[in-house]
Design brief:
The chain has 8 helices and 14 strands. It has a 10-stranded mixed beta sheet. The protein is globular. By secondary structure, the chain is of the alpha/beta class. It has a single domain, classed as Putative cyclase (Glucose Oxidase, domain 1). Helix 4 (159-168) runs parallel beside helix 7 (221-228).
């Protein structure tokens, strides 16, 4: 880079499509685990698009500035307990040690409408420990788009698996799907104000011969189990999650210090130290 932080090859900054990089001084390897956030990011069906405007431009004003309108349940984002639990902690009230620490990225492939069950978590490697950040890679991040398939046919976490994670006392849970729960247990189907995806219940019936509400009678049971235990969640995990699946890594998932916020976009990152020599500064 030159003195202004610009890439000497003429790029204006880091390639936004780059999924990993190595810090030359320490050898630390950083791997993105998030989708990009911005104009055109897929939104939950029924929500307005993320709107980004430029009130100032270089051509007119000699400076660029942007403002956005939209909710925080877009792209890779963290949910605080208050999202589903009345009186729960907001984003700013969450202890910051939940957003940085050791954890596991588990490869648990799942097809449409399947559930991540207790048995999947028990046999996954590396083993889950108390205090871990746990990320589940179902493979669904490869379908990330504004589509019926991504939002309506996704797998999810079962209520029993969520309770198992609560008993393990994990710090944070993330998954590469649009919802923690399978979409038929959300407002995408016939729950609360749903179906937000009006074709979904009939499609499920045509594909399986079963009634979605009978098969999934509870609304967001897995997500509510985690949040009621004070465990924040991350949805829409993506980026280079395949590069670190099956590994124990250090992770950071830093949200804004968002007062009264129910959710917040995060920069989710896996950090690996191949040499095993990294040390945090003492502060002296």
């Amino acid at each position: 880079m030159d003195d202004l932080g610009r890439y000497k090859k003429g790029k204006s900054g880091r390639d936004p499509h780059e999924l990993e990089c190595v810090e030359t001084a320490t050898g630390l390897r950083f791997v993105e685990l998030n989708h990009a956030w911005g104009h055109g990011s897929p939104v939950i069906p029924g929500d307005p698009d993320l709107r980004i405007e430029r009130p100032a431009t270089h051509a007119r004003d000699g400076v660029t500035a942007q403002k956005f309108t939209g909710n925080m349940h877009i792209s890779t984002h963290l949910n605080a307990p208050i999202h589903l639990i009345q009186g729960g902690a907001d984003v700013a009230s969450l202890s910051i040690d939940r957003f940085f620490g050791s954890g596991v990225v588990l490869a648990i492939p799942k097809a449409r409408w399947e559930l991540v069950e207790v048995a999947d978590l028990e046999k996954a490697s590396p083993a889950i420990r108390a205090g871990d950040i746990v990320i589940v890679n179902t493979g669904w991040h490869k379908k990330y788009s504004d589509s019926m398939e991504y939002f309506g046919l996704a797998p999810g976490l079962s209520e029993a698996a969520a309770n198992w994670l609560v008993e393990k006392k994990i710090a944070l849970f993330g998954i590469d799907t649009p919802f923690v729960d399978q979409p038929l247990a959300t407002s995408m189907a016939a729950h609360r104000n749903g179906p937000l995806m009006k074709r979904l219940p009939a499609y499920y019936k045509a594909q399986t011969g079963r009634d979605a509400k009978a098969d999934f009678p509870k609304w967001n049971p897995a997500h509510k189990a985690l949040l009621s235990a004070g465990i924040p969640t991350i949805e829409n995990v993506g980026g280079g999650v395949d590069l670190v699946s099956g590994k124990r890594v250090t992770m950071q998932a830093t949200p804004w210090r968002f007062l009264h916020g129910d959710a917040c976009v995060v920069r989710l990152m896996a950090i690996l130290d191949p040499a095993g020599a990294y040390r945090v500064a003492s502060g002296r």
